[in-house]
Each structure stands twice: as structure tokens, then as C-alpha cells.
């Protein structure tokens, strides 16, 4: 039929061209009176007669064409029973199966009764233009199918290439049942008041107005979203809902977090919530475990956020609009310190590792674990690879010990892997991401692992540690180790050598930017005091972090590329052929944020390896750079974070950052305007 249409189109076009040419010639002859007397001969009446004749002729041609098309269609538009037989057609009708045959140009030649009954006219249309997904079937094996929606009905479609036959199966009923089951699937969650003890103070629940308001907001939100809530602890609620309600909360961005924070506007203490939900698993026990893990992650990332755990998929994060609340509980420090000492005492030896590209904080934290092991009289080794340690940390570490002592306390990653045994305690500091651990192979072999970190926890986490202490409110991991050493119930006390104390103090200086960072709290100064008691030299600790002249010049060079895509936001870009350390990016970001008025957040992009480009982000607390780097595939804390990309150009990473800022900057801005942070 497509051939007949094409031929008719050519004939019709030719006729129109002839008519147009004749009309044009007549007008020219009439205008120039060629031959002489032609204008007098052709009266207006003749023009009218000619026009009517042309109109009648075109009408007759159109009528004849329509009759011819109808005859062609009747020859092609055969009933399905004539082709496949009445019995088979009845079976197809019962199974709601549609058939579509196309030509070599994917023009529909024939369809069976299913589409005609549903008033879907496919004849003479290009089937691939009708639904884009059908194009995928052209190069797919016959066992592959695509699902498409037409007129509020769903079809599974397969393609038989030899016959140019598309087979449609109506799956609307199954799809509706599947969607209903999905929407009604059980979801389990936990809602926790992060700083309950600080908000409640010494009063009873019923006598605390702020706590009562928080509880009321939680229950009203649950009622609005269709969530059943039951309080199982003074600060926690157990939540049950279906997936439709969870999807509604995700679409809403868990506005409960903002409603809770708003109650503390203008107050010294801002109530925040941590929320963990789990779904897409029929096992209620597994759902409960997933929800508990989600709430743990929300807490370890500093609270004030929701974490949704979808079985088999990456975690989804919402909120995180305030910095972690500083933990000043000495009881917890003592409990963790004593647990750590018990584990060390029960082990044959200790191996401790920081992260790849280790900085002063990672090295100093390793030395803190070494102090615990020495107290427990257990051999302790630090995983060390000079190629994977930041230049200043490498120089400071090696020059602080005599060669024999240095070789005695360090192991290469390969030696650590060979040395580890079932009775070895493997301690990871300053990171909780398995792929970032310097001694990754030893970690994989370890059966007893401890994690101590101050970064927000992400979805990729070290599997089943025997002790896990992550405190995002701490300024550095060295700060945490100093507190654990101070408050351990050891008699006599755990000792730190002056050299180790100096390196740990340098780690605190680095991560708190000499106490200028937003993460700096009372604990940071107390930790520095603890280390000073053990003989830390603050002048030497500062010297460890000083720049060489070449690095100073490079900082100025990078700072000269500064741009401001949004108010209060700056970013700089290193040259694509300059390879720098991650700590260099962090230093530039800190310098610009601290030294330029009006800069709330600063991002620095640079190449940190032959195939790696990194972003370092710093904030004054009014913008959650951790949330922004999460969107870029990285992570970190509220006011300091980063991300890394492989096999890309610096310019592409710059474009990704700008797109992220355009999309998520307003979401990342603190809705408290800096209050309570």
C-alpha cells in the first residue's frame, strides 16, 4: 500500500505542476497581450469558467483517488481470521494479543482486531515513530521484550525480525496489580531526636515545652503522611507505613526535619531529628535491620537528616542542613576507650592504618593507637607507604623518629597483609570507606576490625567492625584519640611521647585550620591542652604545616583563577597539567574562605593523580558542602568535604560542579541562617 501511495503522490504532484504552469503562461500572455488581441479575446467570463473547470477537475481527481485508496485498503485490510484462522484468532482475542506487520521501511501494513476494537489506527504509520521503545527491539533477540503504555493500557512487545512482526501482549491487569503491591509494600523506619538530653535538660518529658512541641510535630507529620508511630524510647519512635507514604515523604524531602529545626529558631539549642527508613524487602526482620542501619548512618553523619535504604540500591540522603552537635559526654569517651583497651589486650598484635594519601591527622591518629598498644604491651605497627602519604606528613613522620624506631613501628601494605592473623586487631583511623584504606588487602583479611573516624559515614562502610566510633562533631581524628587517652580508666595513665603528641597536635591544627574551622569546638581546645600536657611542641607542630616557596607561589597562582558563580560561593581551578596533593586543594579552599570577606563556601578543583581529578570544599557553616559533594559522588562533613573523579578533564569536573551548584545550592543553604550551627 505504501508503494501505491507513493505513486499517487507523484501523479498528483505532476498534475498540480502542470496546472500551475498553464495558469502562469495564461497570465503572462494576458498581461503582455501576446499574440495581439489575446487580451481582448479573453473576457473575464472565460477566467471564471476556467477557474470552475479546474476546481471541478481537481475534485474529480480527489474523488477517484479516494475510491482507489479504498480499494487498495480493502485488499490489504484483511481480517485476522483470513490470515491466521478463526480458532487462532479467538485464542489471540482471549489472550489480548495484538499483531502488527510492517514493511522494510517499518510502515504498518496490517494489524489484527485488538487495535481496531480499541480505536487505535496504525495503518500507514511508521511503527518506530509511534513508540520510541519499539526501536530497541529492532536489534534485540526475540526473547527480549519492551513495556510500553498506550491509551492508559500497558503492553509487552516482542519483535520477530524474519516476518517483520510485532507481537503485543496486553499486561494492564498485571501491571496494575504489580503497582498496587509495590505501593502497599511495608516500610519500616525509626525517628530519633538527636540531641534529646540537651533539649530536655533535667526536666521530665511532660514538663518540657520544647520536647512536647517536637513530639507534636512528629505525630502531626506522621498523620499527614499516613505513618503509624509508636514511641519505644524517650527519644525514639518506631514507624510503619506503605511505600506510597514513603514515596510521599521522599517527594516532600522529609520536611519534618525542617519543621523540627524551626522550633528552635532563636534558641540556644536547636532540636534536630535523625530518620532511617527501609523498604523493598519482604522479610520484616531484614527490613528492621536495614532501618537500624539507616538510623545509625544518619547519626554517624551528624544527624538532622533522613536516610532511606532501598534493598539492593544505594542509600538516599535527605536533609543534613545543620552541623553535627558537639558531643561532650565524658562517659561515652571512657566507655569507648575502655572497650578499645580490652580489645587490644585480647589480641596478639595490632595493625593500624589511615587512608590513602594520608595527612597529618591520619598519621597522628595512628600514633594515638600506638600509645594504647604500648600501654597494653602489645606489638603495634602502622601501615605506611611513602608514595601514599602527603609530602608534609611524610617528612614530619620520618624526621620525628630515629631510623631504627621508625622501621620498628611501620609496615608496608604487603607486609601488613602477610602479618595479619585471626588474633590480630586491625584498626582503621580517619576513614570508614574500605576502598580508601591504605592497608586494603590487610583489611580484607582481618577478622577483628575497629573504626575510629570524624567524617560523616556514607553507604560504603567497613563491614561489621567489632568497635565503631564515628563522631562528625569532632574537629579531627587526633582530637578523638586525645580524648580517649585522657578519659581511659587506666592506672597509671596511658602515655604519649612528646614526638607523638606533637604530630597529633599538628593533625588537629591541620583539620581545624588552626582552630578557625567551624568544626572547632571546646573539645578541640581541650584536646590541644591534653597533648600539651604530654609535651607537644606547638611551634614544631606549626612548622610541620608550613609551605615551601614553590607551594606558596602555586597557591597564589590557583587563587588567581577564582570565580563566583553564586553569591557567597567561590571556586578555583588548577591547571590541567599541574598534579597536586589533596591537602593542597584543602589549604587553598581554607585560605580563600578565611581571608576573603563574604565567602560562605569555596571549592577548589585540581588534578591529584595522572587519572584523578579532585574537588575540595570548605564552608563557614551556612552552606552544607557535604550535601553538595554527595551529589557529585563524594561526601564529607557539613563544612568540609570533597569528591574525586577518574579519567576526566579538569574542565569537565568544573562543569559538573557548576551544574550541581545551579541545582542544589538552595537546598544546601542552612535554613537557620547560621543559627544553631
General description of the model:
The chain is an alpha/beta fold and 677 residues long. It contains 28 helices and 23 strands. β7 (228-233) and β8 form a beta hairpin.
Keywords summarizing the entry:
677 residues; alpha/beta; six-stranded parallel β-sheet; 23 strands; six-stranded mixed β-sheet
Strand portion: 15-25%
The end-to-end span amounts to 73 Å
Number of helices: 28
Estimate the helix proportion, in percent: 40-55%
Number of strands: 23
Enumerate the spans where pLDDT stays under 50 for 5 or more consecutive residues.
Answer: 75-81, 672-677
Q: How many whole angstroms does the radius of gyration measure?
A: 37 Å
Strand order of the largest sheet: 7-8-6-9-10-11
Computed structural class:
alpha/beta
Largest sheet: 6 strands, mixed
| Broad shape | elongated
Question: Mean pLDDT score, rounded?
Answer: 84
Oligomeric state of this protein = single chain
Amino acid at each position: 500500500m505504501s508503494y501505491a501511495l507513493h505513486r499517487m503522490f507523484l501523479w498528483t504532484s505532476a498534475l498540480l505542476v502542470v496546472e500551475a504552469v498553464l495558469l502562469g503562461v495564461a497570465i503572462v500572455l494576458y498581461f503582455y497581450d501576446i499574440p495581439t488581441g489575446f487580451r481582448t479575446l479573453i473576457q473575464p467570463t472565460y477566467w471564471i469558467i476556467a477557474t470552475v473547470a479546474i476546481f471541478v477537475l481537481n475534485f474529480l481527481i480527489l474523488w477517484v483517488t479516494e475510491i482507489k485508496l479504498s480499494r487498495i485498503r480493502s485488499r490489504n485490510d484483511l481480517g485476522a481470521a483470513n490470515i491466521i484462522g478463526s480458532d487462532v484468532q479467538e485464542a489471540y482475542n482471549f489472550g489480548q494479543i495484538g499483531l502488527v506487520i510492517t514493511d522494510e521501511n517499518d510502515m504498518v501494513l496490517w494489524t489484527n482486531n485488538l487495535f481496531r476494537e480499541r480505536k487505535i489506527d496504525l495503518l500507514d504509520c511508521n511503527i518506530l515513530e509511534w513508540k520510541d521503545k519499539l526501536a530497541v527491539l529492532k536489534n534485540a533477540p526475540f526473547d527480549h521484550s519492551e513495556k510500553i503504555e498506550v491509551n492508559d493500557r500497558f503492553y509487552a512487545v516482542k519483535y520477530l525480525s524474519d516476518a517483520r512482526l510485532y507481537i503485543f501482549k496486553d499486561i494492564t491487569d498485571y501491571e496494575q496489580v504489580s503497582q498496587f503491591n509495590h505501593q502497599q509494600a511495608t516500610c519500616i523506619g525509626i525517628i530519633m531526636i538527636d540531641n534529646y538530653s540537651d533539649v530536655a535538660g533535667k526536666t521530665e518529658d511532660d514538663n518540657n515545652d520544647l520536647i512536647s512541641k517536637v513530639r507534636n510535630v512528629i505525630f502531626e507529620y506522621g498523620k499527614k503522611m499516613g505513618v503509624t508511630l509508636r514511641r519505644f524510647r524517650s527519644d525514639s519512635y518506631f514507624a510503619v507505613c506503605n511505600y506510597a507514604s514513603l514515596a510521599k515523604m521522599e517527594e516532600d524531602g522529609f520536611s519534618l526535619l525542617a519543621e523540627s529545626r524551626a522550633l528552635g529558631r532563636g534558641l540556644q539549642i536547636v532540636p534536630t531529628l535523625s530518620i532511617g527508613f527501609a523498604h523493598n524487602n519482604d522479610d520484616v526482620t531484614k527490613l528492621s535491620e536495614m532501618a537500624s542501619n539507616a538510623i545509625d548512618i544518619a547519626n554517624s553523619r551528624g544527624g538532622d537528616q533522613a536516610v532511606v535504604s532501598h534493598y539492593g540500591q544505594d542509600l538516599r540522603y535527605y536533609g543534613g542542613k545543620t552541623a553535627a552537635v558537639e558531643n561532650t559526654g565524658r562517659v561515652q569517651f571512657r566507655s569507648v576507650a575502655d572497650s578499645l583497651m580490652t580489645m587490644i589486650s585480647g589480641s596478639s598484635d595490632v595493625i593500624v592504618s589511615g587512608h590513602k594519601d594520608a595527612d597529618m591527622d591520619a598519621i597522628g591518629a595512628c600514633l594515638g593507637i600506638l600509645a594504647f598498644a604500648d600501654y597494653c604491651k602489645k606489638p603495634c605497627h602502622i601501615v605506611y607507604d611513602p608514595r601514599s602519604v602527603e609530602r608534609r606528613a611524610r617528612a614530619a613522620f620520618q624526621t620525628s623518629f630515629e631510623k631504627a624506631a621508625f622501621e620498628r613501628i611501620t609496615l608496608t601494605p604487603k607486609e601488613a597483609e602477610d602479618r595479619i592473623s585471626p588474633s590480630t586487631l586491625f584498626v582503621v583511623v580517619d576513614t570508614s570507606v574500605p576502598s580508601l584504606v591504605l592497608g586494603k588487602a590487610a583489611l580484607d583479611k582481618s577478622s577483628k576490625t575497629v573504626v575510629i573516624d570524624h567524617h560523616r559515614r556514607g553507604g560504603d562502610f567497613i563491614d561489621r567492625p567489632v568497635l565503631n566510633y564515628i563522631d562528625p562533631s569532632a574537629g579531627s581524628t587526633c582530637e578523638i584519640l586525645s580524648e580517649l587517652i585522657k578519659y581511659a580508666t587506666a592506672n597509671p595513665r596511658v602515655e604519649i611521647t612528646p614526638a607523638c603528641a606533637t604530630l597529633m597536635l599538628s593533625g588537629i591544627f591541620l583539620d581545624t585550620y588552626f582552630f578557625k574551622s567551624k568544626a572547632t569546638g571546646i573539645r578541640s581546645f581541650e584536646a590541644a591542652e591534653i597533648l600539651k600536657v604530654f609535651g607537644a611542641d606547638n611551634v614544631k607542630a606549626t612548622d610541620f604545616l608550613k609551605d615551601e616557596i614553590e607551594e606558596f607561589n602555586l597557591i597564589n597562582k590557583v587563587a588567581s583563577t577564582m570565580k563566583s558563580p553564586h553569591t557567597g560561593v567561590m571556586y578555583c581551578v588548577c591547571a590541567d597539567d599541574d598534579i597536586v596533593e589533596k591537602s593542597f586543594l584543602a589549604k587553598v579552599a581554607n585560605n580563600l574562605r578565611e581571608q576573603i570577606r563574604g565567602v560562605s563556601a569555596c571549592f577548589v578543583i585540581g588534578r591529584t593523580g595522572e587519572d584523578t581529578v579532585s574537588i575540595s570544599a570548605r564552608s563557614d557553616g551556612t552552606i552544607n558542602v557535604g550535601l553538595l559533594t554527595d551529589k557529585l559522588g563524594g561526601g564529607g562533613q557539613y563544612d568540609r568535604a570533597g569528591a574525586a573523579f577518574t579519567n576526566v578533564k579538569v574542565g569537565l569536573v568544573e562543569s559538573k560542579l557548576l551544574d550541581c551548584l545551579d541545582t542544589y545550592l538552595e537546598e544546601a543553604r542552612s535554613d537557620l541562617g547560621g543559627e544553631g550551627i
